[in-house]
Amino acid sequence: MNIYVGNISHSSTEDTVRELFEKIGPVESVKLITDKFTGSPRGFGFVQMQNTEDSKKAIEELNGYELEGRALTVNEAREREERPRSGGFGGSRGGNGGNRGGFGGNRDRY
User: Fold this and answer.
1) What would the CATH number be for the domain defined by 2-76?
2) Of residues 56, 53, 1, the one with CA closest to residue 29
């Protein structure tokens, strides 16, 4: 079962989170999410445990658990919702049209 872990301190590491969850049962993987531009932690991640019983026990015992001064939010991870993709920064730019001023299209007026 995949477990969402939120409100993680920015000083926490994947090893810190792994050690906490391994007190309950075997952990397959830990992934803390980072900002793709800066690389800094975003304060949440995912833990994959080997069996469902341990996963449920971890959710029950660790939701609200204080780790490095922050109360963790721990629950079953949901599937990621599909969001519409935009055209990068600021989305669509629209057309090229419009008079841009200057001496553009009406040169023979001058």
Assistant:
1) 3.30.70.330
2) 1
